[in-house]
Design brief:
Elements (H helix, E strand, L loop, with lengths): L24 H4 L2 H4 L4 H4 L6 H13 L8 H25 L1 H6 L15 H22 L2 H22 L6 H5 L1 H4 L1 H10 L4 H24 L1 H6 L5 H5 L1 H20 L1 H4 L4 H24 L4 H25 L2 H22 L3
Amino acid sequence: MVTVPTAPLPAASPAPPTAAASLSRADVVPSRAKVALPPWLEIAKPRLIPLLLATTLGGMALSEGWPLPAPRLACTLGGGALAAAAAGVLNCLWEQELDGRMVRTSGRALPSGRLSASTAFAVAVALACAASALLVGGVNCLAASLSLLGLCSYVLLYTVVLKPRTPQNIVVGGVAGAIPPLVGAAAATGHLGLGSWWLFALVMVWTPAHFWALALLLKDDYRSVGIPMLPVVKGTVATARGIAAYAIATVAVSSLGVLVLPSGGLLYGLLLLPFNGRLLQMSGRLLQAPDDLQRAKGLFRWSILYLFGICLLLLLARLPLGAQLGEQGGQLLALLAPGFGGTA
């Protein structure tokens, strides 16, 4: 296994004596401690795939080609899942030595010896080939190319280049997780429209707040192996400020969905309000107490539900009810418009 040399990290400000110890990944996501997966499936990181598929569906819903024929829908989701699994395996292969030195990852299949590197590589190649064949044969070449781009972005751009070198790794490297909406749009229409790029941008600005909340929980583990995550390099206060800033950006960008949806924008906008309110509330509470791991844990979990919720709202907005509500809302505004002018 070839390791990437890292530069020495600036000293981070020490945590106050009252700060709680970092939580393990099992503490953050308890299901990881309860569900034992076969080694070959574990390295594919299947728990990350549903959210990627949800944003793929969101990209489809934002296009005029929605709803898709069932065979094309199945091929798109199946190919996307296989490509994401291949990326997970390659990530585990590259970070095998690093994982063996971290508390939260030392028990993974590769560093623990439950699976050989040659077997893992064979699994990755098989998954990538199956994904390409399914997407090219059942969808189109654009969707297949974008899916491969997402795989390469995660493995090469984020894992190999950015993660060991800069605390802004997830800001740029988040592009890998933002590509599935483009795959969905390509599958639906064969081209990329404004809506798909909007959801791409939304996932990009959502990712830092989501990931930095997790990094706050695992900062000691990252520090022990020299990975320059933001809490390690800049400290918890700067990280909480960054989370709050990106939460505000997420709220602003998510609101633009009202304008880019082909139909149902009004329904989406109304249902979006509690999601954004809760995100701002939780990021604000963390900013008040950056060393409170329970607040970071709550924000991390909510951020996952938030993105799932956004994609669900997009699908609901494209139902006939969403289109009907938008039409009636437009008619109501047209009736009220003269009244807003008033009299001199």
